[in-house]
Amino acid sequence: MTVSAEAIFDVLRQVRDPEIPTLNIVDMGLVREIRHTPEVIQVDLIPTFSGCPGLELMRREIERRLKDTWPEASEIRVRFQLKEPWTPERLSQDGQEQLRQAGIAPPHLGDAPLPCPICGSLNTRLNEVYASAACLSLYRCLTCHNPFSAFKPW
Ligand SMILES: [Zn+2]
């Protein structure tokens, strides 16, 4: 297959954030820049949270998938770009919807109350600082009584 930005994006769409398996890294807004020649493929990513243990796993998976797709490429570089922080605005519409369906509140900044992704109530409470994933916190909605996860604040 010829190397093209579009084909690279198709490969990247198969990669999921290990912390949030419902969401692929393209919809998550993690892809900052793609450069390629027929021989060299370079992908720059923005990590959501630099402390996430899943980042290295994700990087290796991307490299493996790119190599499987273009075994003739002489160099594949996948780098995390730390200069520019990831912000929730980078999520695509699909990404926001997928997060909501997974019961994960979209990341929020500041002290604003966190809306429940299930019923929209602002009457929510932090339950557990350590949820199932290192980058998520567990909340409970006091209106619909459902638990939900949210990104840990910066
Ligand atoms: Zn609720």
UniProtKB/TrEMBL annotation:
Domain MIP18 family-like as annotated: residue spans: 6-75
Database matches in Pfam families: FeS_assembly_P, Zn_ribbon_PaaD
PaaD zinc beta ribbon domain span: 111-152
Name the UniProt record assigns to this protein: Phenylacetate-CoA oxygenase, PaaJ subunit
Organism of provenance: Sulfobacillus acidophilus (strain ATCC 700253 / DSM 10332 / NAL)
Lineage: Bacteria, Bacillati, Bacillota, Clostridia, Eubacteriales
